[in-house]
Write a structure and sequence with these properties.
Elements (H helix, E strand, L loop, with lengths): L13 H7 L24 E6 L4 E6 L7 H15 L6 E4 L2 E8 L2 E8 L4 H18 L6 H6 L1 H11 E2 L2 E2 L4 H12 L9 H17 L1
Antiparallel strand pairs: 1-2, 1-5, 3-4, 4-5, 6-7
Length: 207
């Protein structure tokens, strides 16, 4: 707390004469500009819907929508508001929502009404670019469903508990590969690794 004597002191009689003359009172702490303290907990939710508004992937990081029913209603409202617009930002129910469409997918990142839109956009861009990498540039429903495990790993590397961990897609991909690749294979999602293992078992049985 700032010490009272730190304020400029009026000359003798200045305060009284100013009050009598209707002048401005000395500054008080209430007159200071107030800045909202930045929070690490930036992201409330991330979800991906198909072009019919059905959920494919979703993670909620606080209790704004505590039940599945409330989440689904929110996602439906968001989809109805954004699916036919060219904008990249929407405001709904006290939330700031940034989004991006790709073929038959809609990707959404949700923050509070006071959240920095650029921060949310950086999460969205990182998510899209990282998914584009693991899906071989096929950011569409079919490929996402076939690589859902990898998509969840990507999201976990970007956001954890609402805290933004990483916004560089190259770093995200490296960490995902490190987690899923203990045998020297590169650029494979968990689903692809499992598929490769199944194929190896099949061929070994046929020999």
């Amino acid at each position: 707390m700032q010490r009272p004597e730190a304020w400029p002191r009026p000359h003798p009689g200045e305060g009284a004469s100013a009050a009598q003359a209707g002048g401005a009172a000395p500054p008080t702490r209430a007159a200071e500009p107030r800045f909202q303290e930045p929070s690490l907990y930036t992201v409330k939710a991330v979800f991906i819907l198909d072009n019919d508004g059905r959920r494919l992937l979703a993670k909620y990081y606080d209790d704004t929508f505590p039940s599945m029913k409330e989440q689904m209603v929110f996602e439906k409202n968001v989809f109805n508001k954004t699916s036919r617009t060219e904008s990249e930002i929407a405001f709904l129910g006290g939330m700031t929502i940034v989004y991006k469409s790709s073929t038959d997918l809609f990707l959404y990142v949700v923050g509070s009404s006071s959240e920095n839109e650029l921060m949310l956009m950086s999460v969205l861009a990182c998510l899209f670019d990282s998914l584009s990498h693991i899906l071989r540039k096929n950011v569409e429903k079919r490929w996402l469903l076939e690589n859902m495990d990898g998509a969840f790993l990507v999201l976990d590397e970007i956001v954890d508990g609402g805290v933004i961990l990483e916004s560089d897609p190259q770093q995200v991909i490296q960490k995902v590969n490190f987690r899923t690749d203990d045998s020297g294979l590169t650029e494979q999602s968990v689903a692809q690794v499992l598929q490769s293992a199944k194929e190896q078992i099949k061929w070994s049985l046929l020999k």
